[in-house]
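Me: I'm a chemist; would you kindly supply a protein sequence with its structure tokens?

Assistant:
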Amino acid sequence: MQMVYDPQNNCIYVASGGSNSVYVINASSNKVVRTIKVGYEPSAMVYDPQNGYIYVANLDSGTISIISSKATSMPLSMYFAIIGVIIVIIVVTVILLGKT
């Protein structure tokens, strides 16, 4: 198991060969905040503080995955999904209030 630490976002990146993923863990809360799929059998990782990239060597697929450590927050699509749910709740509430 390989791991690297990014002091700029206080996250630990842990390579998991069993799931072909890199887990992003918030170092303050010790909770997984994101799971990133990479190539087969990630075996080595390096963090470059100059550009904020994490390079993951995937042994079985013979590839290198490049992860931006600046992109560890919630994906933009998740924000849109949350906004959509809020809009639906508001519309249903307005409809229900109009019927009373």
Notes: The chain has one domain: 3-73. Residues 76-98 form the longest helix (23 residues). Confidence is low (pLDDT under 50) at residues 72-79.
